[in-house]
Write a structure and sequence with these properties.
Blueprint: H1 2-15, H2 18-55, E1 81-82, E2 102-107, H3 115-128, E3 137-139, E4 145-147, E5 165-170, H4 181-198, E6 205-207, H5 209-212, H6 218-222, H7 224-241
Parallel strand pairs: 1-4, 2-5, 2-6, 3-5
Antiparallel strand pairs: 3-4
């Protein structure tokens, strides 16, 4: 008798009266559990995202600067003496160069000086602070190449194009500003290698003059035909040595 009464009472809880309250209470308990579980998952996710952001991992990882590996270039990298400048506000600010869109050719305008002397001048600006100047590369009158600035950082060389170009300073033997054969040969080799490395064409190779109107590089501004010949020599070098881009630059 008592069992039947309890059973009927329990059944009545689901049919009406107190049963409605029981159902709603049970529903609230389930909802509360769902909220707690959801909150726990959300907090865990936010914590994980915060850790990734702080550590620079996962979706917050900065895209690393990269270039084409030498393996995908059929031409040999030129012989480069890497002597990077000390990071300083006057010649190597350490500012990221996100994408190389061009190559700018300069001349040093100080006849008879070496690539090493010009590199050391840039380095000395950290102490003298007399001006802001530098270049990614300097080519000497004997054809030696010194790298002063990483290609993923800006150099103070090309004014409004500092932010998206690689700069090359060329030493000169005299006031004409004409490059020696050794300098010229190294310039062609370096420029074509950089063209392949950054997926550039000869249209992307310009003079400082083309940026600011300054007579730099002097001989190749005063002699337009010589500049056009230089560009033609770039094409010939590429065709001969087969610098080809076979992968996208990341």
């Amino acid at each position: 008798m008592n069992r039947r009464k309890k059973k009927n009472t329990r059944a009545n809880l689901y049919r009406g009266g107190d049963g409605k309250s029981y159902y709603e209470a049970n529903k609230r308990r389930r909802m509360s559990r769902y909220i707690k579980v959801g909150s726990t998952i959300l907090i865990t996710l936010l914590l994980a995202l915060s850790i990734m952001k702080i550590s620079g991992r996962g979706i917050f990882a900065q895209r690393a600067y990269s270039e084409l590996s030498d393996e995908v270039l059929s031409a040999q990298k030129p012989d480069i003496d890497v002597e990077l400048l000390t990071v300083n506000e006057y010649s190597r600010p350490g500012t990221a160069l996100e994408k190389v869109n061009g190559i700018v050719v300069h001349y040093t305008a100080n006849p008879g000086t070496t690539a090493q002397q010009n590199r050391d001048y840039f380095e000395g600006l950290a102490q003298s602070g007399e001006t802001h100047a530098s270049s990614h590369f300097v080519i000497g009158i004997s054809g030696e190449i010194i790298q002063c600035i990483p290609c993923n950082e800006i150099a103070y060389a090309s004014n409004d194009r500092n932010s998206d170009t690689v700069s090359i300073e060329c030493c000169i033997p005299d006031d004409t500003g004409k490059f020696t054969d050794a300098t010229y040969g190294s310039l062609v080799h370096l420029v074509t290698w950089l063209m392949g490395r950054y997926d550039l064409t000869t249209d992307d190779v310009i003079r400082h003059y083309d940026v600011t109107g300054k007579a730099c590089p002097k001989y190749y501004v005063e002699n337009e035909a010589a500049w056009e010949q230089f560009k033609s020599d770039l094409v010939d070098y590429i065709e001969t040595n087969g610098i080809a881009k076979t992968e996208e630059i990341q």
